[in-house]
From TrEMBL:
GO cellular component, one term: DNA-directed RNA polymerase complex
Protein name per Swiss-Prot or TrEMBL: RNA polymerase Rpb6
Domain of life: Bacteria
UniProt-recorded Gene Ontology molecular function terms: DNA binding; DNA-directed RNA polymerase activity
Keywords: DNA-directed RNA polymerase, Transcription
Any GO BP: DNA-templated transcription
Pfam family, one: RNA_pol_Rpb6
Length: 108
């Protein structure tokens, strides 16, 4: 997932309920799908952030020296400015980029 090229809003916006539940005809099912996708996005972002911050880690036993790494601060600020995972998930849902399937109809 390329989180740099996302047009999801950073702040809270109002979305028409009919747009959200249109693919499933059930608002609760749509919200559940978006919630699961938001969890996936959050896991991906957290993993990516930890990998980048791990590059700056120093493994000293001494607590006397604490270094402020400007690159590390910039990476952290970049991730703080990103839209939240739930906002990204809603935008993906509205753009029809989320794959889901109805398991009730698959088993019938």
């Amino acid at each position: 997932m390329d989180i740099k090229n996302v047009n999801a809003p950073v702040s809270t916006t109002t979305i028409d309920k009919n747009l959200v539940d249109a693919p499933t005809d059930n608002i609760y099912e749509a919200i559940a799908i978006m919630s699961k996708r938001a969890t996936q996005i959050n896991t991906e972002i957290k993993k990516e952030l930890l990998e980048k911050l791990d590059e700056f880690a120093t493994y000293n036993d001494s607590l006397d020296e604490i270094f402020e790494n400007k690159e590390q601060i910039e990476v952290s600020k970049f991730y703080e400015k990103l839209p939240k995972p739930h906002s990204l998930a809603v935008q993906e849902w509205l753009d029809d980029k989320v794959y889901y399937r109805d398991t009730k109809s698959d088993n019938a």
